[in-house]
Specification:
It is a single chain. The protein is an alpha+beta fold and about 250 residues long. The chain has a single domain, classed as Ribbon (Umud Fragment, subunit A), CATH 2.10.109. The chain has five helices and 13 strands. Strands 1, 2, 3, 4, 10, 11, 12 and 13 form an eight-stranded antiparallel beta sheet that branches. It has a five-stranded antiparallel beta sheet with strand order 7-6-5-9-8. A hairpin with a 2-residue loop joins strand 6 and strand 7. The protein is globular and about 70 Å long. The chain starts with 8 loop residues before the first helix and ends with a strand. The relative contact order is 0.18.
Length: about 250
Amino acid sequence: MSVEKHQPDWTSSLQSLLATVVIAVFVITFVVQAFQIPSESMENTLLIGDYLLVDKLRFGGNSISDHFLPYRKVHRGDIIVFRYPVNPSQHFVKRVVGIPGDHVRLINRQVYVNGAPLQEPYVRYSSRVHDAFRDEFPRLNIPVPGLEGGWWLQMKKLVDDDALIVPEGSYFVMGDNRDESLDSRYWGFVPRENIIGRPLLIYWSLRSADPEWPSAPTPSDKLFHFAYAVTHLFQITRWDRTFRVVN
């Protein structure tokens, strides 16, 4: 009589766990990435407290595999998540306004690309105050607080006939909330290699926190916020935005 040997149950469970971890790491590394909206610069398209899944495969990279996978080029109007050129450790989300070769200009808040007005139904203006640099871009004769010095020098070389020329391999981006967006107008272009992907889905949306909560919470504050979120999950969730596809 032969006796069959069976692997212990814990071995099979461990193998299943390791396979799950490997798949999860692959997905997080190459397919999607979680991202939280930290500012109001993309309102009302994206709100503070929106939690996104970012599609990292949409635009591809610069490898041979790009010819075989369903990648596409970055288009004008795309929302992108990217590494902030001034500080690559930070991630920003903005909308592409100008692609390589475009001539970009703002006149009284209206964006013109290659001489034609850009149709932007998603844009929001939150201020009634007209700003000579922000709303009449590019302006080379106005000192602007907070403007990146290197960008100021580069911009002067790229302006022709009052329009900014977007160089090869770069993108000009702006927030949908035009009056409250720190974007390409102030720090320059987004290099192609800085682009991570595009927002795919809002998987959770959290209402704004209590205004008395500190803006830079300590570890104990974060613990309190987490406990509050868990115990008030249904009250603080924006259910109408949860699982919404980002356009």
